Predict the 3D structure of the following.
Amino acid sequence: MPRAQPESLTRVIDDLSQRLGKRCSVNRSILEQHSHGEDYAAHDPPDVVVWPVSTEEVSHIAALCNAQRVPLVAFGAGSSVEGQVNASQGGVCIDLSRMDQVLEMHAEDGDCVVQPGVTREGLNAYLRDTGMYFPIDPGANATLGGMISTRASGTTTIFYGTMAQNVVALEVVLADGRVIRCGTRARKSSAGYDLVRVFAGAEGTLGIITEATVRIYGRPETVGAGVCPFPDFHKAVDAVTEVIQTGLKPTRIEFVDEVMMGACNRYMHLSLPEKPTLFVEFSGSRAGVEEQFRLADEIMQGHGAAPLEWSTDEARRTELWKARHNAYHAGRALRPGWESISTDICVPISALSDSVAQARRDIQAAGLTAAMVGHVGDGNYHVMFLFDPQDDGQRRTIEGINSAMIDRALAVQGTCTGEHGIGLGRRDKLRKQFGDDTLSLMCSLKRAWDPNGILNPGKIFPQTT
Amino acid sequence: MPRAQPESLTRVIDDLSQRLGKRCSVNRSILEQHSHGEDYAAHDPPDVVVWPVSTEEVSHIAALCNAQRVPLVAFGAGSSVEGQVNASQGGVCIDLSRMDQVLEMHAEDGDCVVQPGVTREGLNAYLRDTGMYFPIDPGANATLGGMISTRASGTTTIFYGTMAQNVVALEVVLADGRVIRCGTRARKSSAGYDLVRVFAGAEGTLGIITEATVRIYGRPETVGAGVCPFPDFHKAVDAVTEVIQTGLKPTRIEFVDEVMMGACNRYMHLSLPEKPTLFVEFSGSRAGVEEQFRLADEIMQGHGAAPLEWSTDEARRTELWKARHNAYHAGRALRPGWESISTDICVPISALSDSVAQARRDIQAAGLTAAMVGHVGDGNYHVMFLFDPQDDGQRRTIEGINSAMIDRALAVQGTCTGEHGIGLGRRDKLRKQFGDDTLSLMCSLKRAWDPNGILNPGKIFPQTT
């Protein structure tokens, strides 16, 4: 849809400021704060920001925007990285951060009902004394509404699955303001179309999530974290494959490349081996954790690794994983003042070694600065490319390499995005990945549910669709 | 949609018999064979049955039916139980049983590409010497296309998840004959709407699956099966809850009630205790299996159970689980010549004890014959009601009890169907479960993708929608 008509926008802003008072703002710095997420270069401010506190308010806002044909963009923590929250056609930004209540907790059923603005750290703070926790960890302290909307995952996916597998029911406000519920609290259901999985990953283009029921888990008795450098990347991947095939169940198994390890050494004044490194976590009973580390160590040394250093002590665990936890900022610090672009390739595990090796060849041939981390058990890795924002040639080179990486991933039936989503940044890749017919099927779903195209317009679909 | 116009039907049958030769039939006994699945009373024969052998043929058939407005009903093994394969508006029955090839197997990635007519036993026979297997087990030897389409699950869901969680990519023929692909072979993806999960559970109303990529798993080193009678149902459920909360990971944990145990004794000339009984399976390393049985036994005896009898020997395992494996036929044999109706309630685990207790009270008060089995770790159980087909009053009483069971399940955010689907038999329950607005959202998706309503017409949506 195009931008709203000025008179429509005026009507909407008048209504909302009257209804919401101070929870409606056209202040320029507020608009700027809501013009972008993280790591996406463009800033697109909305015309107005509102902070609803109830489903009824969200419903009113949607119905109003729909009647006036004004774009409506949902905003959580602003931690998405592909421009998902940019108001590229202006309109109303609906900031859900004040809908941040945990509504119900059912320990016996392993689920929890939350408002969309609850963050994952907020939920875990709430659960602290209950023996339960919410394990999905994309790094950023995202809101659960946002995590559901981008099908976020992160370091624990290998054990707990993605956000899509951990959301069981939703309340959603549709484009026309209707409020619907889908899903159940039962462990499974064959009743009708699985609408929960349609909204999960729709990036706010099909509805606004106003309540979510998510899975929570018993906090494990013991958590052990370890770290282990390898002579090269291939050996690290082979070790991960064997760890998994042997039936060990790491709760996290992360890869950091030698460039990123060097960045961490400089950023945090450490002296870790600047080698491809695996970070491993096992959870469960003390005996189970010890046994799994023993077996993992054996497997890893069989692939040429140094002995696995590990601990179940919390302070020591944090120390051992320090490099992994701070990799993002360490990587950015390699070139102060430069921008970064992260790839999000995910391929079948059998294709991972080649995928990374070819990426590295391209990076070296072009003489670029790039560091790598990977959720290697999922076949998912991020290359953080750094570039001088003044240097258009450098940016184009990176885009070319990224594009070639995606082409190769698609050739082995992988995906252009494992966990970051499409947003504005990968719209053309969506067409490349699925082709015109599949894309038109997605578009027809969008048109059926949001006929005026007010919900997060411009997102996920290529502009010529 | 209504039935096809006679002249349209003639055109379709002429075209298909010319193109497919003997793989197109209007033979009356063939039509009758394709008029129903299992356990659904009505028989609705199609006007013609075809057996395509390629995606191109399926595409041609769909395009032809769409142009002529002729209903198109997909048929696999005919093992669905809610009338999903009944041709309630006549038309073309597309029998996919000759598309039964396993196309690719990727052991390292844990996936397998199959045609829709491959059965789960067929797939496991194919995988026999590879060290891999396909664990999803709904009981019947269903086709994978059918299992995906009803979001089937069964006894192993507690460990491996449902069919929806074990299908990663699809090729689908749409109503107008277009062939689309969705999903990837990567472990996760955030690229666009998750169309795989839309087709999974759509019961053939949105497209015809012509190829599926499903997860396969390494065959466990050791499998142990055990059995254990309890003094009452509540104690058995409490034991299951504790087994799960303790972190034990049964691959199956099944409940059979005392009525069904009695039926098994009579049907197979056994002398098992006629008590509520749990059937448990653990898999993995030998030491792990032994340790888990030891802990499970301790927990169960703590809830008043007899000592857990178990074995890892294959013949002995089959013996121990004989009652569970034959429960369906044993139950039917309680009243030879009578019909049966199965409920498929699934509730949050915290609500399971009450749900079953209230069902039993209703059954006893009405003096009905009914036996029970349950995938108790999932909160899913089936009451098999037996009734005299001549006795309308008896059938109405059963329908009333079933309806009350569903109402109570919905009140605790459970579902009217855990794994059997909606078909013809539960259409009104779909509305009850989700309400008009959610139902209309499902309908608008159906209309967007199948505007002429040719795909499995009459299914899942209440007739007044």
Remarks:
- Residues 43 and 455 of chain B are 18 Å apart (CA to CA).
- The two ends of chain B are 12 Å apart (CA to CA).
- Chain B has 16 helices and 19 strands.
